């Protein structure tokens, strides 16, 4: 199995597109970092953080005068005001802008790009073998088809994890170089009290929850690529569901069946921000639904690959 994975890994890196993906991930980190640094420099030349906080308080108070705000909105702005007032009273600047933590938090949203590139690999790693005819040569080896397909799947996940590590490491290095070490404190309201926020713990939790969409998108693209032998179809269909999944769930929200669709649960970050697609969801239930669909995707992929005629 290890030799098969090594072979797939070498074939993957012989493609120029693989290097282009890594380069784009790095570029999409460095580029925004430079722009954020420039904007921060221009801003700090004009105003101090105290003036910014005072202006924020005034803005929030003006917003709260509106009669259209819900109870949740009022609570949100009241907490924002409390945090800003705490900063001014205790001389605690924010690290929202101009810190390595804030930059890593910003680039964590680029995991969508990592998922997209990994989906491209997942969709093409099987289908390309059929389109080029190299699958016949691959299957002449004295190994089972199940091992061949498993090696391709594991290689895809290894590549995705590699891009994930590149995203985190490069983000931390760029953030450290451009913004330096932490100079402020991130605050939040817990049980009505202003407390210091564990930024790195929250980031780790966010990355962990992002794994739901990451894994399911890869498995779905791998399924489509294995069954239909078309990488373009797998990539297009996976991206279509990724971008329209929320709309599909919203359209089906009036029906109970929506709770049993994997698109409803793949974005586990909804448990981080509390904005659920469907009410009444729980983490164990979402993980169970995703696990069931993951098994279904894998079973279909393997059955299709095992029974497919490659001699024609």
From TrEMBL:
Keywords, sorted A to Z: Membrane, Transmembrane, Transmembrane helix
TM segment ranges: 20-39, 110-132, 153-179, 204-225, 232-253, 285-305
Keyword Transmembrane assigned: yes
Protein name per Swiss-Prot or TrEMBL: ABC transporter permease
Organism encoding this protein: Lysinibacillus xylanilyticus
